[in-house]
Amino acid sequence: MRFLIIAFTIIITFSACSSLSKVQKSNDYEYKYRMAEQYYAKKNYNYAQQLYEELFPIFKGTPRFEDMYYKSAYSAFYLKDYQNAENLFKGFVEVYPTSPKAEEMDYMRAYTFYKQSPKTELDQTNTYKAMGLMQTFINTHPRSERSKEAMEIVDKCRQKLEEKEYLSAFLYYNMGQYKAASVAFTTLINDFPDSQKSDEYKLFSIKSFYEYAVLSIATKQEERFEKVLTECNEFSDRFPESKIIKEVEKYSTLAQNNIKAIKNEQVKKAS
């Protein structure tokens, strides 16, 4: 039974390829155009796009070309060929800037970068591009029905970038690279000041500064425990209602106790 299914699939595929080949060999451009439209309507985007591309030089400058360009761009998009789709969406806007479809194409260009946005752990170049182009779309089309969705995508991109930056900072912390962790968490707070997790990031910054102070040479410890106190005070000022303020107070007390111990030791040595 399985063999029959495979054989039937091969026959169907070969038949379809043979059919496309016959269309491509034809010199009747009207026939080719009709077949491209049929393939597109049946969601056979691979064949439709091949025919549209062959017909571009023939119909360029005619009333049909705009619609062909539009459908070719979407064919690439539906085939998940996002790089080609991005070029086509961009090209459409450049060729037809006053078209009623230009706004849609402008949005879709940005959306292709969003579709190429990878997992959080990987390079986020496409995420930055998606966020930037979506923001540009919002600015240039403030009354568009797509502006709300564009804003949602900008927020999702920002959340992904925030998560990536957090994972990087947390990795430094877990590896015991506390100086790097303190810098990374501080940068994270500055980059995403409106984050709902800002108080958590600040706590990790405090922890990192504290651990860095503990591991420092004796002559640097007092100064670095003072830095911990400064960070704790900043936390209290910024997040007075935070649920984790008790833990911050704990680190404040630890830092004060260490400073007292250091000063007592200095007094002993002086006497």
UniProtKB/TrEMBL annotation:
Gene3D superfamilies in alphabetical order: Tetratricopeptide repeat domain
Keyword Membrane listed: yes
Domain Outer membrane lipoprotein BamD-like residues, every copy: 32-200
InterPro entries according to UniProt: BamD, BamD-like, TPR-like_helical_dom_sf
Keywords per UniProt: Cell outer membrane, Membrane, Signal
One Pfam family hit: YfiO
Superkingdom assignment: Bacteria
Keyword Manganese (UniProt): no
Official protein name in the record: Outer membrane protein assembly factor BamD
Species of the source: Pinibacter soli
Gene: bamD
